[in-house]
Fold:
Amino acid sequence: MAKFELPTTRYANSGEVSIAYQVMGEGPVDLVLVPGIVSHVEFLHEFPGYTDYLRRLAAFARVIAFDKRGQGLSDRVPGVPSLEQRMDDVTAIMEAIGSKRAALLGYSEGAPMSVLFAATYPERTSHLILFGGFARFTNTSDYELMFSEEAILKSVKYWGTGAFIKSLAPSLASDPAAVGQFAKFERLSASPGSYKAALQQNALIDVRSILPNVRVPTLVLHSRRDALVPVENGRYLASQIPGAKYTEYPEGDHAGPMTDSNFRRKICGDIEEFITGDRESALPDLERVLATVLFTDIVDSTQRATEMGDQSWRRLLDEHDRTAQRVIEKHRGKLIKMTGDGVLATFDGPGRAIRCALAFESEATQIGLPLRAGLHTGEVEMRDGDIGGVAVHAAARVMALSEPGEVLVSRVVTDLVAGAGLKFSERGSHELKGLPGRWDLYAASV
Structure:
């Protein structure tokens, strides 16, 4: 596959405020993605699925993603921007890229502003798409489809820990690597104080009265399993916007386009068909290969980092990373990425993968970093330097069950290395969250 270059972050001037944005694709239609409560246009590409999502949309449109003022890579500003100021930021970006008219895809909190923009500037809005959206942010006596402001503000206490993923993407909440990655995204996007201020400002959002004034083609999309914005909100939007088309999905969650490849293809197909009238711009299927996936994790990394201090911990982590690169290369593996306090790698042979894991664990222990490791063999999707698929989730869950100093593997792996001189000790049958059936696990040794 050809090497894919991520889009460059640029800035548009909205008054005296700089708004960070990225452009992907050269399609005949401009599609502006209006983000939810927080975003970070560069770090979002670290999430498996996000870049694929944009690339799929970019197959038929010029896609514009941006960070609202006050968060991500855009200028930090006093207070919280109003919906009017947020509209000004979209206009500024469109001016910067020479867009006369665009389709707006409002996601979650981005939906109300997109509604207001479409009603205010119908001449600049070709289509309106709302995913996981709402008309009012909090409950009131005549709108009981969301949650109370008090309940929503409780999330501030856990901001920066990744706990928000439980509502945003419940399917990933049991994956430590995903939670850690999301925690970093939270911290990079906004501070706890900024997040709280945004919630309080959003409590004032109520666009119910302007919904009948939307006169552009509108598509409302919502997942029936959305835990963050209940599906009744999508149904309400569609019922109040004249002529709106409504599609309700039985699968997926609030972050569905990023976390589920099948759901992503379905949503992107629906958006393309709504805007262009056909679904023919689908990208070729991702490259799929059989591989053995290795996940490792440093035992009690947070506690050790606190005890050692930042500088000493960073030096030790650097040594860990160099050891990982060297050992994986020696065993003909491919280092996919460092996960902060561990690694994700693939191998074209399960025997080499096990020996690599054992060697890495031994060398890491010698420098004072005990590891746990998990392996599973299955089909993976190659995603421009990253990987995805059930095999990746399985390996992560196997690792989570391993003991310190242990290399834990699935039954599939043991079956594939019969006669290779490796030894295995039974570690019982387990349920792996989100994966069907029970899984027999084994501790590997030589």
